[in-house]
Protein 1
Amino acid sequence: MATLALWILLSPLLAALITALAGSRLGRRCTHVLTIAGVAVSCILSFWILLRVLVGAHLDAPLYTWMVSGGIPFQIGFLIDPLSALLALVVTFVSLAVHIYSIGYMADDPGEIRFFGYISLFTFAMLLLVLANNFLQLFIGWEGVGLVSYLLIGFWFEKPTATAAALKAFVVNRIGDLGFILGIAMVLHYTGSLTYASVFARVPALAGRTVGLGFGWRVPVLTLMGLLLFVGAMGKSAQIPLHVWLPDSMEGPTPISALIHAATMVTAGVYLVARLSPLYIHAPDALGVILVIGSLTAFFMGILGVVATDIKRVIAYSTLSQLGYMMAGLGASAFAAGIFHLVTHAFFKALLFLAAGSVIIAMHHEQDMRKMGGLRKYLPVTYVTFLVGSLALVAFPGFSGYFSKDALIDAVGQSPIPGAAFAYTLLLLSVFVTALYTFRMLFLVFHGPERMGEGIRAHLHESSWVVTLPLVMLAVPALAVGWILFHPLLGGSFFGSSLATPVGINPLASFAHLSPWRFFLAAWDAPSFYLMLAGLGVAAYGYLWRPEWPARLAARIHPLYRLLVQGYYFDAFYLRLGAPGSVRLGRSLWKWGDERAIDGLGVNGTASRIGWLGALVRRFQTGFLYQYAFTMVAALVVLVSWALVRY
Amino acid sequence: MIPAWPWLSLLIGFPVAGGLVLLALGSRAPSFARSFALVTSIVAFALSVIVWIGFRDGTASMQFVERIGWIPLLHANYHLGIDGISLPFLVLTTFSTVLVVLAGWRVIEYKQAAYFAAFLLMEGFMNGVFAALDGLLFYFFWEAMLIPMFLIIGVWGGPRRIYASFKFFLYTFLGSVLMLVALIYLGVRTGSYDLLAFQRAPLGLGTQIWLFIAFLLAFAVKVPMWPVHTWLPDAHVEAPTGGSVILAAIMLKMGAYGFLRLSLPIAPDASRYFSGLMVALSLVAIVYIGFVALVQTDMKKLIAYSSIVHMGFVTLGFFALFFMAGASAIEAARMGIQGGIFQMISHGLVAAALFLCVGVLYDRLHSRDIATYGGVARSMPVFGALFVFFAMANVGLPGTSGFVGEFQVILATWVANPWWSLLAALNLVIGAGFTLWLIKRVVFGPIVNEPVAKLPDVTVRERLFLFLLVIPVLLFGLWPAPILDVMRASVAHLVHQALMSKIP
C-alpha cells in the first residue's frame, strides 16, 4: 500500500514537473491530458485506498529519513487511516473536477499552461500534507500549498491588486505559521518526536504538566501546545483575526477559488486540529478557544456576505463562515462532525464557486451581482447546480449540508467545553445569516429583472460541457453524500481510532444509532430549520418582492452598514497601522540606528580618517596584485618578528 | 579508497597556482584567461568532491592531515586537516568559485585576467582557512583572503568603491589584528600553534574572557553581527556581482567558522560567560535588521541586510546551547549547532543565487534600484521563475535548503528559552515581508517602462549558473541528511568541548 500511496503523490507531481519543464513545447492539449491524467490516477488510487481502509487496511510507515538531528530521526512517511484516506479522495476528486473545468475557464488565457502546472503542484502538496504521518511533512505540505496559493492568487501578476492580495495572503499565513512552528518546537521538546503515533502515545503523560513562561507565569503544557498549533490553523483556515487574506484571494482565477480557497487548502487547519484530536482532548481550554473563535468567525464573517455585492466575495465570506462552523465543531470536541462538514462543504462550495465561474464567463467577467438577474433561463444547468449547492449550503433538509451542519450545531449544543452555550447561540443565528446571504445571491443572480447591459444580454448562453460536466460531477455528491456518510462518520464506525473520542461527555453520543432518515425527519423539530426559513423569507422579501427595501434599510442603519462594508475595519487596521508601522519602524531603525548611531558615532571617526587614509593608500594602489600580496606578507613578517622579539 | 595524496594542499595550491599563472599572463589573452579560470575552478571543485568522497563520517578526528615544519623557531607548522564541520565549506567554496567565473564570463571587461586571478587566489586562501590547523597558518590565510576581496571591490566595484573597500578592509582588518595577538598569546603559552592543542589547553576564566573578546572582534565583524555590520551593505552595493557572491557565500561564513573552531572550544567558559550577550545580539540581528531590510530601495542592500538576518540564526544556534537544561539539553545543543552550520551552507547557496539574480538585472539596465523595475516576469519569464524560487528559499520555504537550518535553530532554541524562539521565528513573517515585497515590486506588477519591456530573458550561460544553484537548494531542502551526517560526529565533539569547563 505504501507504493500506492507514493503514486497518489507522484502522479500529480510528475505532471506538474513535466508541465513546468516542457509545457510550452507540449502545447495546450497535451498539458491538459497530462495533468488531468495525473490527477485522475491519483483520484482512482485514492478511491482504491479508501476501499482498502474500509476493510481494515492501515499504514503508518516512513518513506525516507529526511535528516537526523539532535539524535532524533526526522522522517518523511505516510499515514493511511480512515481520516487521511477520506480527505485524499475529497482532494483528488475536487481537484479532478477543477482540472476539467479549467480547460473551459482558462481557454483564452496566455498563462494557461502555467496554470495547469500550478494546480497539479497544488494537488501534490495538499496530498503530501494529508497523507503525512508526522509534523514535519505536514508542515512541508502546509507551506507548499501556501506557496501555490500565493502563486495562484497572483496568477494575473500584472494586476497590482492581485499581487498585493498574494503578498497579503502569504504574510498573514506566515503569522499563523509562526505559532505553528513554535507549536512544533514544543511538541518536539516535550515528546521527543514529531511522528504522530509516538507524540500521541506520550501526550497523556503531559496532562497536568506546566511550562514556565517567565515572570512566574505558568501554563499547562498541552494547552499552550494546542493553542500554538491552532494559531497555525487560524492562518490557513482564515479564522478571525487572521481571516483578512481570504476575501482578497478572490483575485485569483475562479477555479482556484473553488479548489484552494474553498474546498481543500483552507480546510487544512480544520484537518490539522482533527488530526491532533488525541492531543486536544487533553487540552479542554484550548478547545474552548477554538470553539469560541470558530463560532465568532461563523457569525461575523457570515454577516459580511449579506452586504457584499461581488458574487465571488459573497461565496468567500460564506467559506469563512463555514470554516468557522467546522472549527466550532472541532472545538466542541465533535471532531467527526467537523470533518463531516469539511467533506460536504468541499463538494457544495466547490460547486458554488465553479457555478459562479460559469456565470462570470457568461457575463463576460462581470462579477457585480447588481448587474445580473434573471439568468436562470439563459444558464439552466448552471442554475440547477447552483441551486443544489445553495440548498446544501443553507442546510436544507435532505441536502448534504443539512446532515453535516445540523449535526454539528447539535453537537455543540451538547458539548461540555467552556463557551459552548455562547457558541451554540452564535451558530444558530448564523443559520439565519447563511440562508439570508445565500438566497440573496441566488435571487440577485438568477431571478428578478435582468439588469445587465444589452450587449451582454445578447450573448448570454450556457457554458460548454467542460464547464458544466464538473458542475454535475460536484452536484451529485452535494446532494447525496450526506445520506451516505451520515451514519458511518458520525456513528463512529468509520473513523475508528483516527479521531479521538473526548474524555467524559461525547457530544456525538446521540448519533451512534441514528439513521440519516430519522435525522432527516427530525429537521422539523429543530430551531435551525425555522431560522433557515426565516432567512429565506427575508431574502425573498428584500430581493424578490421589495427590491427597494434593502437600500432603504442600509441608509437607515448607515453606521452599521459602513462597518460591515468595511469588514469591521480589520483591513483598515492592518493596512493603516500594521504594514506602514513596520515600514516606519524599519526606516527609523535604519536611519537612526544604523546610519546615525552606529556609522555616525562609531564609524564616523574612522570614516573621516578614510579620506586621509585613502589619499595615503592611493599611492600604493597600483592595481597590481603581487604588490598587495607582497605588502601583506611583509606585514605578517613584521608582526611575527615583533612577536619574536617580545618573547 | 582514494590515494593518500596531499589533497588539502592541492585544494589550496592548485587555485593559487592558477591565479598566479593568470597574473603572469596579464591582459594578453582575455578569452584564454577566462577559459583557463573556468577549467581551474572546475578542477578545484572536482578535488573537493574527491575529498568529500574520501571523507569518513562518524568520527570527529581530523582527516587528510598534513603536517610539516614551517617556522621551527615559533613551533608553527604547516598543519592541515579537516573534520565534518570544515568539509562542507571547502565544497561550498570551490562550487561558488565556479559560479563566479561563469558569472564574470562576459561582464567583466576591465583587466579580465586579473579579475579571475583574484578569485582563484581567494579560493585557495579560503580553502586554507577551512583546512588550517595551525594558528599562524590560519591567520595567514585569514588575512590573505582579504586582499583579493579588497581589490575586487576597489578595482571592479561601483562608483563608491573606494569608500566601500576601505570600510570593508578597515573593519575586518582591525578586528582580526586582535585575533593575532590572541593567537600569539596562546602559541607562547602552549608552546606551539596547534589549534587542537589550543583547544585542549586549560585556561583560567580571566584569560578565556580576554581571548574570547579578541576573537569576538574578529569574528563578529565578519559574520557580521549587529552592531558591527554596517560595512556589509556598503561592500555589497559596490562590489561586482562575483565579489558579492563570494562575500555572501563564503566570507561571512569565516566569522561563524571562527566561533566554531576557536571561540567555543578554546574558551568554553568565556563563551558561556558571554552567551547572553551573543544571544541578544543574534536576536537583535534577526528582528532589528529584518525591519531595516524591509525599507531598502536598493536590491543588493536588501539582500545584504537579509544576509545579516540569516547569520543571526547561525550565531543564535551556536550560543543558545549554554541556556539549555533538562534531559534533552545535549541533543538540543547539537541540533542548534547543526542548524547553524546548515544555515551557513544554505545561506551560501541562496544569497549567492539572489546576488546573481540581481547581477542578471544589473547587467541589463545598470540599476540596482527597485523602482527601476516592475513587471520583469512578463519580459523575462524564466528569470522571473528562478528569482521567485530563490526568494522562496530565502523566506525559508520547506522543501528548499533555507528551511532546514532555521527550523533546527528554532526547535533547539525553544529548549533554551521559548521567548527567544518566538523572536527568532518572527523572521517567518518579517523575512516573508521583505523578500516577497521585493519580488512583488521587481518581478510582478505591470511593466513600468520601455527598457523593462525590452529586457531579454536569461541567456544560456545565466541559466547554467542559476540552475546549478537550483539543484543543491532543492536537493538539500528535500533531503538534508547527507550534510548533517557528515558533520554529526564533529558537532557532537564540539558540543562536548563547549560544555566542558577548561578552568584548571
Protein 2
Amino acid sequence: MDSKCMELLPLVCAVLADPKQALSDDTCLEKFLDWFGALTAPGSPLLEIHPCLITFISSVCQSKTADPTILSFALNMVQHRETMSFLFKKGLIKVVLHLQTDKSLFVASAANQLLAHILNFSERTTTCISLENGSKSDPSEMQKDQGTTECPEWTDGIMEIMKHVEESLSSSVSFRACQSLKLVAWSLAHCQPHVREMLWQRTEGAVEMLLGNEQSSLTQLFMEVLQAAARTPLFSQTNSSIVTLMETMLCTLKPTQAIPFASGIIHLENCPQSLKKKATGVILRPLELVTAPADLQQLHSDLVQEGGCQHTSLEEHLSQKSSCISLLCLSLSSISELAGMGSLNLEMPVQSVILSVISVLKVCVGMPISSSPVISTFRNLIGCSKVQKCALDSLASLCQSPENIVRSEVFSVLLQYLDSPDTNSTVLQKAYQVTLTWLCICSEPPPQALFSVLMKRLCDMRWEVRDSSLEFLAQLSSHFHENLSYCEDLLSSGVPGLSFTLLTDPESYVRASAIFALGRTVRTTNKAGVPVSGHVLLGELARRFVDILAQDTEVFARRAVIKVFTLWLSSPCPTEDLEEPVRSVLTLGSEDLDWEVKVHTLELAQILISQTLAQSGHSTSPYAVSCATRPSGDHLTESLHRLQHLKIFSVLFRGLFDCDRPVAQSACSILLSLKLVINENTPLMDRKAVCDLQGQSWVEDSLKKHLEKLHVGAESQKSMGVVEVLLVLDLEDMQQTLGQSSDHLENSPCSLMEDILAATRMSEDNAVDCY
Amino acid sequence: MKLYCLSGHPTLPCNVLKFKSTTIMLDCGLDMTSALHFLPLPLVHSPRLSRLPGWVSKDGTVNLEKELKECAGRLFVDSLPEFCLPEKELLDLSTIDVILISNYHCMMALPYITEHTGFTGTVYATEPTLQIGRLLMEELVNFMERVPKAQSATCWKNKDIQRLLPGPLKEVVDVWTWKKCYSMQEVNSALCKVQLVGYSQKVELFGAVQVTPLSSGYSLGSSNWIIQSHYEKVSYVSGSSLLTTHPQPMDQSSLKNSDVLILTGLTQIPTANPDGMLGEFCSNLAMTIRAGGNVLVPCYSSGVIYDLLECLHQFIDSANLGTTPFYFISPVANSSLEFSQIFAEWLCQNKQSKVYFPEPPFPHAELIQTNKLKHYPSIHGNFSNEFRQPCVVFTGHPSLRFGDVVHFMELWGKSSLNTIIFTEPDFSYLDVLAPYQPLAMKCVYCPIDTRLNFHQVSKLLKEVQPLHVVCPEQYTQPPLSQAHRADLMLELQPPPMPYRRCAVLGLPFRRRYERIQLLPELAKSLVPSEVKPGISVATVSAVLQSKDNKHMLQPVPKPAPAPPSKKRKRVVEEPPEVLTPKPLLSGAVPLEHFLATLSKHGITEVKVEDTVDGHILHLQAEDTLIQLEEDGTHIVCDNNEPLRTVLRDLVLRFLQKL
C-alpha cells in the first residue's frame, strides 16, 4: 500500500462509518473489497497496521442506524483471519448471530457468510476432536478436549453458532430456519470434515422434522442441504440418513422440483444404485406417461403407488398445458444431461429412451405414434416449439451408432421436421444441427429426400430459414467432402445452383451464408471423379466473390468472402485459378472500411506469407512444413518478390498504421515474424535490391511520417526497400504500445478511494453546479 | 322448432330452420365435387383427351363408349359436368320465407332453389357477398357455356348399368338428382331476389323474429347470423375466421347467450396452418421459377387469391422474382380485382385506413401498375400475344374440370420443371388430377383455409357459451385420415347435436314465452300490490289481440248502451260477458298460528300430519280435514256449511287478497 493510500484509508473508513453520509453507488464497495482481499496476504497484520479498520468494524456492527450496504461490506471485510480473532475476542459473535436475521437481506446474507467462514476457519485454530475413533462430538466433550486450543473464545464461539443453528431449525419463524439451512448447506459444502460432521449430527434430526412439516417455502433449501450433504463422505457412511431423506424427497416433491433434484442425485459420486434408479425413474416418468399407451400408464401408476410415492399429481400436471410443457422440458433436458454423462446406459436401454423422445417429437407435429396418448397430450403439445427444441436437444445428446430401426425412425422424424411448413425457424435450425450430428455419427451420406427439403428451404420466405439451410449445407459439405456419392447427389439435386442465386439475396446474413456454403461445396464438387457439368467452377466463383467484396454494402458478406479465400488457400486443393482473385481480395480487403474485414485480410496475408516462405524453406509459422532443401538468400528474395507481386506489403504497412487497434496489432505481429525471418537471413541477401517501394501510396502517407520521426531522410526513403524499412521500424516498441489497454491509467485503488470520498463529499455547491 | 338439413357438406351447408312460424333457409352451398367424375372440358382441342378409350363392360354387353372414357384406370363421364344439389324432397321449398346467405361460396346453389321451385321469399346478403357471388356464378356459367357439348350422357345413370361400373363411379349415390349448371338468365333472376343488408342491421321477419348479420372475418362481406325472438336466440355460424387477413374481423361477442348455435364451415384442413401453407406456397413457387419452370395455381377468382397476391407482393423482391410475369386469367378477373378495392367498409381496419391516404387497400393494384401482374378474361386474345415463360398463372376452376386451367394442364403437364400448386381446400388434389395422369409436372398441395380450426372454435364456444350446439356429424369425430388426432373434433358439454344430409332435428329450447304489450290505458287501470319487496302483482282483465306475430292486451270493450227499444230488434254482436273476477289470494298459512286460532275458536282436537307438500289437519271432534298445501287449501267436511265457512274465514285471515 503506497503512502497516498495509507493517507486516504482512515478518511474513507470515517466516511463509510458515518451513517449520515449516503453512498449513492455501492459498486465501488465491491471493488474496494476486492482490493482488500488482494492486500491481505497470509501473515500481514492488517488490523495492527490500520487501527482505523478496527474502529470502523466495531462502530458499524454496533451502530443501530448503519446503512445495510455498509454493514454488509463491513461483515465481508471481517472474513479475514485476524479480523475474526478480533471478533471472537471482543465477543461480537452474538452481534453477528443477531444480524443473521436482520431485516435487510444484504446484511442477513453477509452475516450468514461470515458465520460460514468462521466455521470454516475453526479447523485451523482448534485442535479438533478426533472423529475417526467414533467419539461423539458432544459440545461439552469437545470443550474438554480443547486444552491445547490457542484461543478458547474461538471454541465457545463455534459452540454458540452450532447451538444457534440447531435452535433456528426448530424455530417457528421460517426466515430463521431458512437462514440456518442456508448456512448448513454452505458449511457442508465448504467446511472441514470435523466441523461438517459435527454440524450434520446436530442438524440432521431437525432437518428430518422440518421435512415432515412440508413447509413448501423451505423445500428448495432442503434440497440444497441434502445435495450438499450428499457430496460429502457423510453420504457413503453406513446408516447414513441422507439416502433415506433423498428418497423421501423424490416422492414428496412437486414434479417440477423433483426432476432437477433427481438430476442432481444422478450426478453424485458414490450414489447407491437403488437411489440412482429411483432418480432416473423420476426423470423419465413424464416422458413415459406422455408417450406410453393408456393401459401401460395405469400399470405404471399402480406400481408407483405400491412403491410408496404419490404421483397422481404428475398426471394432473401433464393434463394442464403449461405444466405439461415445463415438466416435459425438464425431463428432456435432464435426459440430455444424463446422456452427456454417459450414465444413461446403466439405468435403462438408450434405444427405448430415443424412441420415447422420437414419440414426443412426433406428437408435437401431430404424427401418429404407436401408442395412443391421452387426448390432452395432443392438445398440449402440438406445435409447441419449446418442447420440440428440448426434445431435439435430447435427441442430439442421445446420438450414437444405433440399430437400423432406430436410425430410420430418427431420420424420418427429422425429415418431417425439416419439411413441415409449420416448423418454427429456431426449431428448424436445431433440427438441422441434430440431423448433422446423426449423419456424422452414422457416417453415411444424407438421403436424397434431404436435398429436396434443402431446395425448398433455400427458397423459404423467412431469411433465418434460408440462412440456417445454407449454414447446414456448408457443414454437411465440409463433413462429407471426401464422399463421392454425396458429391454426386449434391450436384444432381440442383442445390449448388440454387445457392448461387442466393448470393444476391436481399438479406446480408443470407448472402454471407451463401458465400460460406458455396465456398465449401465448390471444394466438394470440384474434385476428380465428379462430373464437371452443371456445377459452379472455382475460378468463376472466386471472381464473383471479388465482385461482392468490391460492391456489397453490408459487412457480413464481405467478411465471408475473405474467410472463404482463407479457407481455400489453407486447404490442399489446387489453387491455380486463384492468383488473380487473391491479389484483388488483398487490395480490396485492406482498403475496406470494416476493421474485421481488414483483420481477416491480414490473416489471409499471413497464410500467403507462410506458404510462400515455406516454399523457400523459411517459415514464419511454427506449424509450417519445413522444406528439405537448404534455404538460401536467393530463395528468400524470390519469395519476397512474390509477396510484393501479391501486394502483401502494401496490406501489411497499411494495416500497421490503421486507426483500429486490432488491425494494427495483427499487422505488427505479422511484420515482426517476417522481420525475424529476414534478420536470420540478412547476410545471405541483397538488402537494397529487393522490393523497391517507390511509387507505393502508403509510403507517401503514413509510413513517410513515421520514418521522418525516426530521422530517416527524405532522400533515403525514396530508395528504401521492404527489408530496410522493416529493419528501421521499431516494431517491438509498436507492439508494446498497441498492447496496452486504453483504461490502464484508471484502475488504481487510490483513484477508487478518491472516488468514494468525492462521491460522499458531494456538496450542495456541486449539486447546484449540476443545474 | 326444427332444423332440416339439406346438405351433408360441412362447409357448403344448406339448412332450413323452422322458427316461430317462419321458415328460414341458412345458406345454399353447391357441392361441386360431383364434377370430378367428369372429363375436363378443354378450351382448345386436346388430342390426348379425345384419344382416351371408351368403356365397354367386360362381357361386351354394355357399351358406353360415347359416355364413359377411361384414363389411368379410372372412368370419367364425357359430358358437361353436373352438380349435386341440396336435398329437395325433405320439405316443400316453396314454403321458405327467407334465405340468409353467409358468404359468396355458400350461395352457389341459389338459382336452383329460387327458380322453378315456387320460391316467393326474399334472400338476404351483404353487398360484397352479392357482387362477388354474382362474379363466381357468372364465371361458372361462362366456363360451361363456352365449350358446349353436343349431347349429354345419361345412360350411365341407369341403376342397372351404374352397378356394373367400376369404382368410384359405382358408389356414387343419387346421380339422378345431379343437375347441369344454370344459365345466366337464371342467375340474374335469382339475384334479383336478394335484398342487401349491412353488418348488425336488424331485419324483422313478419314481426316474429329478427335476423341480424354479423361480421365473420372469413371473406369480403362474409357474415354469421343471429336469428332471435324476444326470448329465444339462435346463432348461425358459417365460414368464420379469427386470422388477420383482408376482411373485417369476426364479431364474437354478439354470439353470446344463444340457446342454440348452429356451427358449420370450420376449416377443411385442420392440420394445415394457413401461415405455414403460405410459406410453402412461396418457397415452392420460387424454387420452380429459379429452375426455369412455370407455376400453375388453380384458384377461385376471389378470396384467398387476394391474400396470395399480397403475400407475393412482399415476396417477389426478396426472392428476386421481379422479372417473372404473373398472370390472372378469368372471365371476371378484372371485376374481381377492382371490386376488392371498392369495398373499403368491409375490410379490416388496416386496409380501411389506407383509403384515406389515399391508397388502394390491396397491394395488387401496385402489381398491376408495375406490370408484374397482368389479368386477362381468357387465354384467347391478348394473352396469347403477351404470354412469356417461365411465369406464374392463377386461373380457375380449382376442380380442373373446366375453365382455362384445363388448357394449362395440357400445356405444362408433361414437364417436370413445372409445378401445380393447389391452394383451394375444396377438392382432393389426387381426385382432381386423376384425368391428367400420367403427369410429369410437380404437384404441391398447400391448401389455405383460414376458417376456424378446432382449437379456435373450442375457445370461441367457451367464450360465447351457447346452451346447445348443432353441427355436421363430421365435427364430432376426428377426420378419417387423422384418426389418432382426438384433438381434431368438437368436445363439448352437453355434447353437440350432430346432423347429416336429410336429417331433421328438433331443437331444444329452454324458454317458451311470448312478449305481450299492454295498452297504456289498460296499464293505468292496474292496481299493483306488493307481494315481496320489489315485486308487485296485479290482476288484469283484457282482450288479447294477436296480429302479425305481435300480441297486445286491450281493455275489454264496454257493452254498448242499450239501444232505444222501440225499433225492431237487430241482431247485434253480443260483447263478451264481463265477469267481475274473484280476488286472488296469496301467501302461506303459518301452521302454529293457525292452530292457535283454531283453538281460540274452540277447535282443540287437531291431529297434524306432515305431507310432501304441506300438512293435513284432522279436526277429530268435527270429523273434518284441512289440507294445507303450497298452492291450495282444501276443507273437507260433510254437509257442515257453517263450519266450512268459519274455517274458510279463519284461513283467509292469513292470506293476502289481490
